[in-house]
Every structure is written in C-alpha cells, then in structure tokens.
Amino acid sequence: MSPAAWWSNAVFYQVYPRSFADSNGDGVGDIDGIVAHLDHLVRLGIDAIWLSPVTVSPMADHGYDVADPRDIDPLFGGMPAIERLIAAAHERNIRITMDVVPNHTSSQHPWFQAALAAGPGTEARERYWFRDGKGAGGELPPNNWTSVFGGSAWERVVEPDGNPGQYYLHLFDTHQPDLNWDNPEVFEDFATSLRFWLDRGVDGFRIDVAHGMAKPADLPDAKEGVKVLSHSDDDPRFNNPAVHDIHRGIRKVVDEYPDAVTIGEVWVLDNLLWAEYLRPDELHLGFNFRLTKVGFDAVELHDAIENSLAATAIYDAVPTWTLSNHDIDREVTRFGGGEIGLRRAKAMVMAMLALPGTVFIYNGEELGLPDVLDLPDEVLQDPTWERSGHTERGRDKVRVPLPWSGEEPPFGFSSSPDTWLPMPADWAALTVEKQEADPHSTLPFFREALQLRRERDEFDGTGLEWLTASPDVVVLRARGGLLCVLNAGTEAIALPAGELMLASAPLVNGELPPDSAAWLA
Ligand code: TEU
C-alpha cells in the first residue's frame, strides 16, 4: 500500500445511474444527467464517483447483466456520454471509477447466445457452467444451489434439437449466467475490458461480487435454508480460494496504470478470510459492510469499527467505511425512520467520517432520503420480487430517483412525470433546492462535514483510540487529534473540553442531546 495513494483517504460517491438525473426525458437517469449535476458533487466535496454499471445491458438487473462490457448502453447515452463525463469530472478534480461485473454476463452476451446455439459438449459452453441434470431424464438440477435472488441457481435450456437439455448456473437472475473463470478466455476478455476503460481515462473499478467467480470443481451441495440476498461463510457458492489467483491477475493488469484503484465487493464475514482479498498483490480496497449491520448502539458501533480496523490491519490495507448502497436499506430507515431516523443517520455519518480511511456515500444519503416502503407491487423491478415468489420486495425501495427541485414529482429529476420508479410526494421537502435554502437541513450539514474532513489538520493521520465506549456513548480520538462523541443514549451528555467543530444536532444547554454526534478539536 502506498500511503500517498489518492484513494487512501478519499470520499467516494456512488451514483446509481438510473436514479441520479435524467437528461433526455425518458424517465430513467443517464450519464448526461450526471454531467449536468456535477456541480452538486463539487459543492458536496467528494473526490471520486463510483458509477454503477452503464455498459450495454438488457437491464434485467439494471446493468449488472452486461451484454457488452466495452460499450455504453444507449439508455445511458452511449460512448460519447461517458467521454463527456470523464472529461467534465476530471476538469473538476473528480475521479471516475466504474463498476465491472466479472462473475457473470447477461444471457444476451454473444458468448452465451453462442453457447446456447452450440449445444452440449462444445467449447462455447466451456465459458459458462453448463451441466447435465440429475435423475433419469435429467429433470433435476445438478445441485441444490439457490440464486441470491431466490429460487434455484440452475436453469434448464432447450437444446438446438428442441428438447430440454442441460442446465446453466446463475447465482443471480436467470439472465445472469455465471462465467467459468477456469477458462483462460474469460480472464483475457476481462483484462481487455479493464484496459479499454483505463485507456479512456477511467481511474479504477468497483468489482462486483469479487468473492464470486471461482467455483469448486465438484459443485457440492450447499447447506439447506440459504436466505435470499444474504451471505454466510459456509457457502460453496462464494469465496472459493481459487478466486485469489484471479485477483492477482486483475491486479497485474491494473498496475499497468499507476494511479488506478480496485475496490472489491467482498461479502465475507471472517476477518482472516476477508483480509486475504487485500494482500498486496490483490485488491487495493475491499468493501467492509460491518457499519451497514449495526443498530444505533454505542457498543455495536464500537465493535464494528474495531472489527473492521482489525481486518484491514492484517495486511496493512486501508480501511473503508460505508453505511448504505444500492443493495442495502438506507440508514434513515434502518435507524427508525422519520425525524429520529434522520437524526441518528446524521450522527452515524459523523462517526463514519471521523474514521481513518476511505468512505463511500450512496446517492441520496446527503439528502437524508429514507427507503420508499410503499412502492406499489406493480412497479417493483428488482428480480428478487419475482424470484422470491413475491415474499421479498427487493431493493427498489433504495433506488427511487433523487429529488432535485420543485414542489411535485418528478422534482427536476426528469422532464417526464413517468419516472422509472414513482417518487413520493412528500419528497418536496427533501429536494436539493429546498435543502440549499435551509442551513439546518441535511445537505449543508454533509457539505460542512466533508469540508472539515478535507481541510482540518485534525483529520490527518490514521490512528484511533477509544476514550469511552459505554453502552450509550462512544468517544474516540482519531487521526490528528479529532475527538468524535456519539450519544446513543437517552440523556444529554456533557462534551469533553475542546473546540466544537460540528454537531449533528443543536446542543442543549451546552450538552450533546441523544441521537447526535459532535466533533471537537
Ligand atoms: O451484489 C452482490 C450480492 O451478493 C448482493 O446482492 C447481496 O446479496 C446483497 O446486497 C446483500 O444485502 C452485486 C450488486 O451490488 C447487486 O446490485 C447485483 O444485483 C449483484 O451483484 C449481481 O450482479
């Protein structure tokens, strides 16, 4: 690890492209919508964008099903749009990192179409996981694996002769067949894609399902009762040790471009196993999801931070922090919703921004957006809804378009009222425009917090020391002497001596009220 690397203390902002801003009035966000709102990100004070997938896709999983990894989908504006975004972002000192999806392709990818047409036993099928079924007529899937989105992870195909035949593996939707990384062509093509984007000025990659890719050769059954959209370490579908060679290969390619960064989505819970992804010749950064699992509780927060720091220390990697993303409930909702959820979310953000390392903010977090829990059934689009037999509503609730301005939907997100997910009328109070005019709202709070993090010496350095970690209160001293106090109790508390830089809620008689946090120098 190079301590001076640009990403080692950066603030990343995740743009979910469908939801950020729509420039052409089709109701779906696009790349030129991002270009048009870059100044929002400049004022917010971020260092880099993590752009969820914008490559060519039938959108079965909204871009995480890639049909051409080296072209931009027309829905998002095509190649000229990403060239405009890279140029416009770089002019503003904002880096662009792209999401890449190595575990699977779209079922519309030419490789998969060729595999279907070529039939059993052909080389074309060796790029994926085609297997004969079990049972006399092959009527049972090859093993008991389930899809992360629900149902079997195997889909039976109709062979070129018109009869039901082999099955293919899809850990996610049926439209996302898993690639066979034992086939060297798969790596070569992925390397070509990485260089393709790095040559066009992209600054790095977020690697989707970075703990996937490698599969155990014998495809053993999993334990029963694996839950939808969840992960455990005793799961043969993920974290096969052979994945690490794949990461070493990826790192060699990325190292041809000295400043480029890789950030892996690693849903592995055991610290030793998780840390292996961050060995010096593997990923630069790994998402650590522990902060997304804590309640508004001082002990849980303390333990999550300690745990994450311990995990990253194993190979001297840079810690990363994130409270939510496009797969995870927004923290305002997790912490109770409404006014109290927002208060707690702001306090947690201050705790996160106090920590040494790199942080990831999910678009809309800076506005204090909650989940939209009352989306009507008929608008739901996450494949999880169908695949779980309508028992899991899925992740659409965290992907509702951002409100920019005006008094009614679509709040400046689009010129069309027909947005891809409906926007709640009460988001009139949460628009960027409203919050810019209200110094006590969430957006100015975020801007100030990020500005302090960027400018004050107290945020230099990488240390962390616990002063208090009682059941209700966390007091930590981090980096260059920054004190962060978080009150998760029910009584106001006295603050330690020092210059108050920021509080997430007004002090009451000089004391820090419940559900809030403060930074002191
Ligand atoms: O997610 C991988 C993944 O395993 C998640 O679905 C996870 O199970 C869930 O978030 C746990 O809360 C990545 C992308 O982030 C997701 O959006 C894609 O749907 C998925 O890969 C398939 O590409």
Would you tell me the structural class of the helices and strands?
alpha/beta
Mean pLDDT metric: 97
In terms of DSSP E residues, the strand content is 15-25%
* CATH architecture heading of the largest domain: Alpha-Beta Barrel
Helix content: 25-40%
Strands of the widest sheet, in order across it, are 11-10-9-5-2-1-13-12
Helical segment tally?
Answer: 14
What is the CATH top level name of the largest domain? Alpha Beta
Q: Strand count, sense and closure of the main sheet?
A: 8 strands, parallel
Question: How does this model look, in words?
Answer:
The protein is α/β, with parallel strands linked by helices. The chain folds into three domains: 6-103 and 184-436, TIM Barrel; 110-169, Oligo-1,6-glucosidase, Domain 2 (Oligo-1,6-glucosidase, domain 2, Alpha-Beta Complex), CATH 3.90.400; 461-520, Golgi alpha-mannosidase II (Immunoglobulin-like), CATH 2.60.40. It has 14 helices and 20 strands. It has helices spanning 17-20, 31-36, 38-44, 78-91, 110-118, 184-199, 243-254, 271-275, 298-313, 331-334, 338-354, 383-387, 432-436, 442-455; strands at residues 11-15, 48-51, 55-56, 68-72, 95-100, 130-131, 154-158, 164-169, 204-207, 261-264, 285-286, 320-322, 358-362, 464-469, 473-478, 482-487, 493-494, 500-503, 511-512, 516-520. The strands form five sheets. Strands 11-10-9-5-2-1-13-12 form an eight-stranded parallel beta sheet. A five-stranded antiparallel beta sheet has the order 14-15-16-20-18, covered by helices on one side. Strands 6-8-7 form a three-stranded antiparallel beta sheet, with no helix packed on it. The protein is globular. The mean pLDDT is 97. The structure holds 1-O-alpha-D-glucopyranosyl-D-fructose. 1-O-alpha-D-glucopyranosyl-D-fructose is lined by residues 61, 64, 101, 148, 172, 208-209, 229-231, 265, 267, 326-328. 1-O-alpha-D-glucopyranosyl-D-fructose binds at residues 61, 64, 101, 148, 172, 208-209, 229-231, 265, 267, 326-328.
